[in-house]
Amino acid sequence: MAQILYTFTLLKNKRVNSKHIGKIREIRMIWKSKSAITKMQALAIVIIIVVAAIAAYYLTRPTPTLIKNPDTIITTVYGPPSTLDPAFAYDGIVQIMNVYETLIFFDKEHIDRFRPVLATEVPTIENGLISPDGLTYIFPIRKGVKFHNGNPLTPEDVEYSFERMMVCDPDGGPVWMLLQPLLDRYCTRDENGNIAVSAEEIDKAVESNATHVIFHLKKPYPAFLQILSLSVGVILDKEWCIEQGCWPGTWNNWTEYNNPSTPPLDTKMMGTGPFKFEKWDRSAGEFIIVRNEDYWGEPAKVKRVVWKFIPEWSTKIMMFLKGDIDIIADVPKAYIQQLEGVEGIVCFKDLPLLAIITMVFNFNISSTSPYIGSGKLDGEGIPPNFFADKYVRLGFAYSFPYEEYIQEAYLGEAKRIATCIPDNIPFYNPEQEMYSLNLTKAEECFRKAFNGELWEKGFKVTVPYGIGMDYEEETRIALEMLAENLREVNPKFQLIIQGVELTTYEAQLYGEDPSPVPLNAAAMWWADFADPDNFFSGFMGSAGMYSWNMYFSTPYIDELLANGSSTLDPEVRREVYYELQRIYHDEVLGIPLVQLIGRWYQRDWIKGWYFRPVWEEVVLYSELEKGY
Amino acid sequence: MGLGAYIARRLLLFIPVLIGVTILIFLISMSFTPEQRAVLYARSPKQLRSLRQLAQKYHLYDPIHIQYINWLNNVLHGNLGWSITANMPVSQAIIEFFPATLELVLYSAPFIYIVGTRLGIISAVKRDTAIDHGTRVLAIIGWALPTFWSAILLLSVFYGHLDLFPPGRLGEAATRYVQSPKFTRYTGLNTIDALLNGEIWIFLDALRHLVLPVTNLVIVTSALIMRVMRSSMLETLSKAYITMARAKGLDEKEVINKHARRNALIPVITVTGSLFATMICGLVVTESVFNYMGIGYWAAKAAVCLDIAAILGFSLFVAIVFVVTNLIVDVLYAFLDPRIRLG
Fold it and tell me: Which listed residue, of A114, B224, B258, B283, carries a Cα 20 to 30 Å from A176's Cα?
C-alpha cells in the first residue's frame, strides 16, 4: 500500500529517477518482510476508504428540498393487512379503502353524515330513496366511472359485489354486518356448517337496473348506511372477479363458493378509487399504492403512498424523527417522552376512540377450570357459580380503584365509563351512575355474599391474562390493583394473577363452553360502526363475543337488543339503550375499565388529516397533502 | 470411497433426518388444542368467537397421523402449504425472505471469520500479555453484548445522529427504482442485482444499508471464532513440530502462519460452518432492528403465531442448510489436512 502511494505521488509530480526507483524497491522489501497483519491493516484501510467514499457521496449530494420524499407519503399505520379480500378483511382495511370505493362514505369527521361516492345521492326518507318503513334503500349509480383496468362501473357490478360478499361469507369474517340487515341472520350457515339460506334470498336482497341499485332489508337497520361505508360495502369489478376465480354470479352452484378456505382476492385489488394498487412487497414489509391519473373525481394530491411495516418500535421512532416516515399515529407510552416538543413533529392528543375495555364476570365457570382451585367455597378455591352471586360482583366493583388505575396504567390518557359503551356513541346516558372505589361498601356486600359464608372462609381464584395480548401491561396493572384491594377488604380474599400463553388464553376465553376463565380481565371492543347495538350485543347478548359462554344473558336482554336494532325511531332506541345501560350497571355484569383515548403523530408537512372516531385508522390518503 | 459416492451417501441419509424432524415438529404442535391452533386463522381478534368453526374448516380436529399424512402428501406433490403469517405459499415465502438474510450473511461472514481468526492468533501468540488480555476482554464484551442493544446503539449513532447509514435494505429512491420495470431481479440480492443491471448507485445504496447490520454481526459473533482459534492455536503452538520448526531457525512469522495456523484451523472450520448455517437460517434481532426483513424475522413470527405450515417448511429449509454446510465442512477438512480421508 505504502509502495503504491509513494509511486503514485512520484508519478503525479513527474519526477521519477533511479533514486526513486531504489526507494520504491526498498519499500517493497519492507512490505514483503511485513507479516500478514500489515496486510490486514491494509485491508482495513481499503474498507475505511470505501466506506468513507460512500458516506461522502451521500453527504455531498445536494438536498433538493427540505421535505423528504415530497411526492410520497410514508406511513406505518397500521400493521400489514391480513388479506386484501374485502369478504375476509376485518381489521387492517385501510389499503382496501384507498383503492376500492363504496357507494357512500362518512362526511369528514362526522359519523352520522354521509357523502355520495359511487352513488350520486345519499338516500334519506326525505328524498324518497329510503322507503318510509325503512326496508328499501335506492342508490342512483354514478356514470362515467372506470375501474383501474378500464372496465366501466355498472349497477350490475354493485349488485354483484354485495351478493358475492354474502355468497362468500367466510367463518369469522365481516359479512355478518350485511347479513344482519339484509337476511336477518349472522351467518349463511347453521351451527353444523350446513347452508341455511337460499339463493333466492340472497338474489332478492340486492337488485339492480340500468341506473339504480336497490337494497331490500329484512328489518329496519339504523346502522345500514354506516355499514355501506365500510369495507364490506366496497364495489368490485364483476368481470375481473370472475377472472380471479370468484363466484361467477350464477346460482346453480353458488354453495361451492361459500366459506372458501383461502381468500380468492387475497393479494390483489381492482377498484375505482383515487389510488391504484401497485405492490405488496411482503419480504420488504412494504405496501405501495400510486395515484390513479384517470380518477373520476378530484385526483389525489400525492403521487404515492407507501406503508412500511417496521416491527421494531425504536427503529420506527428513529426513522420518524429523521423524516423518513411521515405518519406513525399512536406510539407506546415508553416513547412519548422522546417525541415531546421535537421540531417538525405534530401530535394530535385527546382523541376519543370508539373503543372500550371492561372486565367481564363469568357466571358459570367450567367445573374443570384450572383457575378455581378446589372448586368449592372453602377458602382454597371458588365454586363455578361464584360470580352468579350479585353481592360478589358488587364487592368486586366497589374494590376497583377506577381513577387511580387510569392515572397509573394510562398516565391519565383514558376516560372512565359507566357501562360497556363509550361516551361518543348515540344514546349514551350521561346520567348513568358509576361505581367508585369504596372498600366499606365492598365489605358490606362481601359479608352478604353466599349468606356470609364467603366472608368467613375467604376465596382463592386465579385470573389469567394472555402474554402478548393487546394492553397486556394495563391489564396486569388492573388485576394487581384489584387483588391488592380485595386483600385489604379481607386478607382471606386471594386473587392470583397468572400470565398464560396467548393462544391458550384466547382458546379458553372464546372457544370453550362454558369458559374456564373466571373473569375476562380485558374484554376490549373497537366499534365496527358507531351504534350502541354493536357494543351491547357483543357484551350482553346471548350470542355476544364476550357473553356467549359467560351465562348472564337473559331473554329480556335479547329482546331489548332485538328491539333496539330493528327500529329507526330514536325515542324507542333511547329507551332501549338506556334500559340496557341500567341493567349493565345494576346487575354488575362487569367492571367497566376505560374508554381509550388516542394520539396521532405525524410530520408537520402532512396537511389535511382529521380525526373521525369510527375507523379512525382508515385515512383517505387522497385528502392528504405533503408540503408547507 | 470417492468424493462423489461420499456426498451421495450423505445426501441419502438426509431423507430420514427430514422425516424425523417433521414428525417431531408435528408432535410438538399437536400438544396445542385444535382451538389454539385455530387462533392463527382468525384474521382479527373479533373472529375469535368462531374458533370452533375455524378449527373444523381447516381439519384441525382430524387425528394427528391423518394431518401428518395429508401434509406429507402435499409436500411430495411440491406443495409446502400456505403460510398465513406471510400471506403466500411457504415455498414462495422462503424464496422471498431468504435473499435478504443470505446477502447479510455473505457480507458479514468473511469479516467475522477474518476478525475472529486474526484476534485469536494474536491472542495466542502474545499469550498472557496485555495484548492477549485486551483482545480477550474485547471479545467477551462483544459476545456478552445483547444483540438488540448494540444494534440500537449503532443505529442511533450512525443513523440518528450522523445520518450516515439508515435502516432498511435500500433508500426510497432506490426502492422505487428496483420495484420499477426498468430493473430486473436475478437473485434477490440487491448488491448483485444492482451490478447485473449496471446500476452502480443502487449497489452503493445497498452497500450503505449493509454497513450497520454487518458491523453489528461482526461485533457480536466474532468472539466465538476468536476463542476457538485462540485455544486451538495455543494447543498447536505447544506441539513438537512447532518446536522443531523454531529449532531449525525458521522465522517466527513463518512458524505461525505456515505451520501453526493451518493446523489450528480445523476446529475453527467446524465452528464457522455451524455458525454460518445458524446465521443463514435467520438473524431475528439484527433483521428486526435494522428493518432488514429476512427469513429469521418471518420464521420467528410464524413460530409465535403457531403457523404450522410455515414452521414445517422452515424446518425443512434449516435441515437442508445444515446438512449442506456440514458436508462442505467435511470436504474442507480433507482439503486442509490431507491426512483426513473421507468415507
Answer: A114
Residue A561 backbone phi and psi in degrees, to 5: -60, -45
Buried b (16+ CB within 10 A) or exposed e, A177-211: bbbbbbbebebbbeeeeeeebebebbeebbebeee
Residues B157 and A205: their CA atoms lie apart, in Å, by 61
Per CB-CB distance under 8 Å, the chain A contacts of B164 are 55, 58-59
Q: Which residue has the cell 386471594?
A: A494
Q: Which residue of A has its CA nearest to B200?
A: A54
How far apart (Å, rounded) are the C-alpha atoms in residues B60 and B58? 6
Q: How far apart are CA A256 and CA A199, in angstroms?
A: 12
Ramachandran class of A213: left when φ > 0, alpha when ψ lies in -120 to 50, beta otherwise = beta
pLDDT band of residue A34 (cuts 50, 70, 90) is very low
Q: Is the ipTM of this complex over 0.85?
A: no
Reported as type and span, the H/E element at residue A290 is strand A286-291
Q: In whole angstroms, give the CA distance from residue B29 to residue B50.
A: 21
Separation between Cα atoms, residue A618 and residue A624, nearest integer Å: 12
Cα A286 versus chain centre, distance: 18
From chain A, the residues in CB contact with B179 under 8 A are 278-279, 281, 288
CA distance B255 to chain A (A): 12
> What is the rounded distance in angstroms from the CA atom of residue A264 to the CA atom of residue A245?
6
Distance of CA B324 to the CA centre of its chain: 13
* CB within 8 Å of chain B, chain A residues 511-570: 511-512, 524, 528, 545, 548
pLDDT for the residue numbered A557: 94
A62 close to B (CB below 8 A): no
At CA B51, angle to CA A163 and CA A229, rounded to 5?
Answer: 35
- Number of H helices and E strands in chain A, helices first, is 20, 18
**Cβ within 8 Å of residue A460, ≥6 positions away:** A373, A379, A380, A381, A382, A494, A496
Q: How many CB atoms lie within 10 A of CB B14?
A: 16
Rounded to an integer, what distance in angstroms lies between the CA atom of residue B52 and that of residue A192?
Answer: 11
- The model carries a pTM of 0.81
- Residue corresponding to grid cell 445497498: B206
More reliable by pLDDT, A193 or A120? A120
3-state secondary structure of A386: helix
CA–CA dist A104, A109 (Å, integer)? 14
Q: Which domains does chain B have, with CATH numbers?
A: 88-342 (1.10.3720.10)
Phi and psi at residue A182, to the nearest 5°: -85, -35
CB A146 within 8 A of CB A269: no
Please state the length of chain B.
343
- Cβ-based contacts of A85 with chain B (< 8 Å): none
Tell me if A449 sits within 8 A of A389, measured CB to CB. Answer: yes
Which residues in chain B have Cβ-Cβ distances shorter than 8 Å to A366? none
Residues of B whose CB is below 8 A from A171: 47, 50, 53-54, 57
* Among candidates A54, A312, A318 on the partner chain, residue whose Cβ is nearest the Cβ of B208: A54
Q: Is the peptide bond before A514 cis (omega within 30 degrees of 0)?
A: yes
Considering chain B, what is the average pLDDT of its residues? Answer: 84
pLDDT digits (tens, 9 = 90+) for A222-256: 999 999 999 999 999 999 999 999 999 999 999 99
**For chains A and B, what is the number of CB pairs under 8 angstroms?**
166
Neighbours of A5 (CB within 10 A): 10
pLDDT, position A59 = 55
Residue pair A77/A606 in contact by the 8 Å Cβ criterion? no
Residues in chain A closer than 8 A to B88 (CB atoms):
267, 282
Beta carbons of B179 and A318 less than 8 Å apart: no
A268 in contact with B, Cβ within 8 Å = no
When CB atoms are compared, the residue of A315, A504, A512 closest to B155 is A315
